[in-house]
Amino acid sequence: MAALKKPVKKKDNTKPGTVLIVFLVIFVLASISLGVLAWFGYREQDDLRKAAESARSSEKTMKINRDYRVALVYLLGSATGYEKLPDGDRTFAENELDEIFKEGGKYKSDDSVAFAKAVEEMKKDLGWDGKKFATSYSARLKQALDDLKKAEEKFAAADEKRKEWENKYNSYVNTIVEFDKARSAAIAKGNAAALAKA
């Protein structure tokens, strides 16, 4: 008898192989992982895009606020007489003065209405030539101090004259008092002599 041959089993092509199943599972897991990573990545990109847009908007707002404050400093410096702005800022401020108080202009601030009222009062008080004040409070103070010094000098001179005339007056009064005493003594002597003869 011959050795029995075992029948060779044919592979069933309808069932997937183990390797194929492993690769399929890995592919599905990799696809899900990459999808989740992409979703988080794009979500962060959107957040970063929004943050960048917010930063640009904030920077623009900060620049407008800085420009507004530079113009206010220029105005207050001009009003007080202490203009210490760099030339570039001074030129910018002079050119932006019309825009600062324009209703609906680009410079909107919580204090713009109150500051506009204060500047209008300063314009009336100091005079305004369209770009700066005609005079300043420090110039007016210096003028007032100079006037005060001149007035004090005039007062001192007038006081000296008053003292001089007061001394002359007192001398004249003393002369009259001495004359009156001498006259009264002469009358009394004359009366006594007349009474003695009588």
Describe this structure in words.
The chain is mainly α. The protein has four helices and no strands. The chain has helices at residues 18-80, 87-100, 112-126, 137-197. Helix 1 (18-80) packs across helix 2. The relative contact order is 0.04.
The residue fraction in helices comes out at over 70%
Order of helices and strands: HHHH
> Quick one: how many beta strands?
0
Structural shape: rod-shaped
Radius of gyration: 53 Å
Counted by DSSP, the helix tally is: 4
Q: Structural class, please?
A: mainly alpha
Strand composition percent: under 5%
Overall mean confidence score, pLDDT = 82
Q: Report the major sheet.
A: none
> N-to-C terminal Cα separation, in Å?
216 Å
Task: List unreliable stretches of 5+ residues.
Answer: none
What order do the helices and strands come in, and which of them pair?
Blueprint: H1 18-80, H2 87-100, H3 112-126, H4 137-197
Helix pairs in contact: 1-2
What are the defining features of this structure?
198 residues, mainly alpha, 4 helices, 0% strand, rod-shaped
Summary of the model, kept short:
By secondary structure, the protein is an all-alpha fold. The protein is 77% helix and 0% strand.
